Amino acid sequence: MNRTAVIGGGIAGLTAAWELARSGHQVELYEASGRLGGAIAPVSLAQVQVDAGAEAFATRTPAVRDFLRDLGLDQQVVSPNPLGAWLQLPDQAAPMPSTGVLGVPGDPGAEDVMAILGAEQAARATQDLEAPMTWSQEQRPALGDVVADRMGPAVVERLVAPITSGVHSADPYDLAISSAHPELYRTMIAEGSLARAVTALRAAAPAGSAVQSLHGGMNTLISTLEAQLRELGTTIHLNTEVHDVGALQADAVILATEGRQVNRLIGQPHEPSQPHQPAARHGMSRNSGVALVTLLVHAPALDGWPRGTGMLVAPTADHIQAKAMTHISAKWEWVARALEDQLGPSHHLLRLSFGRVTDTDGSLGFASSDTALLSAAMTDLPALTGLTVTGEQLLDHTVVRWQTGLPGGSTQQRSDAQRIRERLSARHSAGGPQIAVAGAWFSGTGLAQVIPDARRTAQQILSR
């Protein structure tokens, strides 16, 4: 029986281990922390368990849904409230336009786009439909650079930045377009227009919501994977940090962790980003990361979901410290029902996110105290909901911090990731050990990229 060691117990490592184990490999999984799941984890308030990290998956491809079906979880898939989210800008709050991908509008002249951009900037965005295509497939640009060129900087600032900031914790000018959406750039070149690319991608996507989740939260995926791995005979080592790949005595190794750790394990020095990249430009530090403050409030005024399923905040809206707010009980019906069953009507769960991977030590976020974060959340909540919500209405709260699982997705980082994969492949072709990599640092962020990439990585091991 072939023996494979998987280092890293996040969703990538678990997915790869499951793919190998069900195909008959003897798998040993090593996780440095005391739990599995990485950025997918549960948190409970008033005995209602929700996600503390990643809460949904993109449905633009069937990859995640297929995986859930293979695990026997397809009957637990749920869609969010179709109301959708709003954008919080410096001068207004408005529903997110309905025709976009990553905030890029498929119809720049639509009324909901014009309501945010204004007539002049909307007209500038429509120029994309006629302008010659000057980008080429060989280039590896940032999302912001492409959108600003094709549709104007106002589209980046008012439509795209709130989404990349809230979802990717990144500046659109630092986020590789291939990391944000693998097909958008290729489709734009094929269509000769960014707007037409967005329209084509939306038309090709499966019908229904752009994201989905699981009843009980995405954290149920982790408990299911762990249970099935143990049934398949996988040995799981928690609180076990691997320092020497060669000591594992495995036929193959999958490194499902971030680039710095991978470079250390394969005996390569870490290659820092170039001076023009985000690490230097924004002063990234060990305190960069995000903090999520989840609030349980009794607030009848919120029963009407005044801002849909939540808010994505433009970085230029400096009167608000949070980068995003999710009205959890408005977004997921099962959460609203659980709260009502447990506590009665008019109870709401809301999650506010603070910090970005490019934040400096002085920013409110990962390194801030629980007290400071709660204070900021309660200050921002009325501004984000448009309603008065007082401290007396707060029944409970939690603070969760995330630093790992946020690879940034810069063009330099994506290039570094590709070089590592090529180096490992060349080593193996020359007779070296079979070592593969997986995880968001290599695939790009989001379960829709991480899960299929991890399955492909496992299949590569199985095919040799």
From TrEMBL:
<keyword id="KW-0274">FAD</keyword>
<dbReference type="Pfam" id="PF01593">
    <property type="entry name" value="Amino_oxidase"/>
</dbReference>
<dbReference type="GO" id="GO:0005737">
    <property type="term" value="C:cytoplasm"/>
</dbReference>
<comment type="function">
    <text>Involved in coproporphyrin-dependent heme b biosynthesis. Catalyzes the oxidation of coproporphyrinogen III to coproporphyrin III.</text>
</comment>
<dbReference type="InterPro" id="IPR050464">
    <property type="entry name" value="Zeta_carotene_desat/Oxidored"/>
</dbReference>
<dbReference type="InterPro" id="IPR036188">
    <property type="entry name" value="FAD/NAD-bd_sf"/>
</dbReference>
<keyword id="KW-0560">Oxidoreductase</keyword>
<comment type="similarity">
    <text>Belongs to the protoporphyrinogen/coproporphyrinogen oxidase family. Coproporphyrinogen III oxidase subfamily.</text>
</comment>
<feature type="domain" description="Amine oxidase">
    <location>
        <begin position="11"/>
        <end position="462"/>
    </location>
</feature>
<comment type="pathway">
    <text>Porphyrin-containing compound metabolism; protoheme biosynthesis.</text>
</comment>
<keyword id="KW-0350">Heme biosynthesis</keyword>
<dbReference type="InterPro" id="IPR002937">
    <property type="entry name" value="Amino_oxidase"/>
</dbReference>
<dbReference type="InterPro" id="IPR004572">
    <property type="entry name" value="Protoporphyrinogen_oxidase"/>
</dbReference>
<dbReference type="GO" id="GO:0006783">
    <property type="term" value="P:heme biosynthetic process"/>
</dbReference>
<keyword id="KW-0285">Flavoprotein</keyword>
<keyword id="KW-0963">Cytoplasm</keyword>
<dbReference type="GO" id="GO:0004729">
    <property type="term" value="F:oxygen-dependent protoporphyrinogen oxidase activity"/>
</dbReference>
<protein>
    <recommendedName>
        <fullName>Coproporphyrinogen III oxidase</fullName>
        <ecNumber>1.3.3.15</ecNumber>
    </recommendedName>
</protein>
